[in-house]
Amino acid sequence: MSGNWTEEHIPDQRGRVAIVTGANTGLGFETARMLAERGAAVVLAVRDMEKGKRAAARITGDVTVQALDLTSMDSIRSAAADLRAAHPRIDLLINNAGVMYTPKQTTADGFELQFGTNHLGHFALTGLLLDRILPVPGSRVVTVSSTGHRIRAAIHFDDLQWERSYSRIGAYGQAKLANLMFTYELQHRLAPHGTTVAVAAHPGVSHTELIRNAPAALRVPVTWLAPLLTQKAEMGALPTLRAATDPDVTGGQYYGPGNRGEIRGYPKPVSSSPGSHDRATQQRLWAVSEELTGVTFPAMTSHGRDS
Q: What are the structural domains, with CATH classification, of the chain?
């Protein structure tokens, strides 16, 4: 398409069911708000139900709230069971929630917090909901990554949980790289079915609560220079919304802000690092993720078109 893709380009979403994780604030809230205002039935999947209810009250449309703590496999399984019971079909699953640059911590299941929340939690949720998504023509799984997937980023199979040494920036890079590799491998497996696509997006540098855990050397300059370095959450949500709703989207794409450096701007297809496209690593990460979470996906081939 020509021109800038804006909120006004979101097609009519009436009749569609969208689940947005981490939707009580920031990018997730704006994503949910815009989808609901276009007519989608939106589920805010959030850890804090009270915050979720307050967020839902600020959105016009069909909005419900679902408890989901991505740091707990028990919570993920419980939420998936609730969502499956409430929704025979799911059109959009938007894996938005995340943590960034946290001090060394583990999830309830012993996973490093950033890898466990950002990647393993969403991997498990997707696998548990996929049979509600697969039969729906035009359905999509959108996973939010980051330009941080390029920063000191690798999948450290010899120390996935950062038990030997910990770098909050390195762990974030690994988690966001994993989000992309999961998307690309999922698309390979979905391609033969022809109904569902997997797409990734990133918000650039958006002014949200995520920066609160950044090292002071990064957090302070970003806070002071926010008007120059960041964009509002409404703009940061647009790449996710384009990935979720633009009729021209194809599986395995990656959307981000269109200005130089992908920091700000209107959404367009962007490129990810060469390493994110390594098929052997994608497949190994998938196998390890199934082993760690105990979640296996519905039978799908891994022989689709290249991402």
A: 12-293 (3.40.50.720)
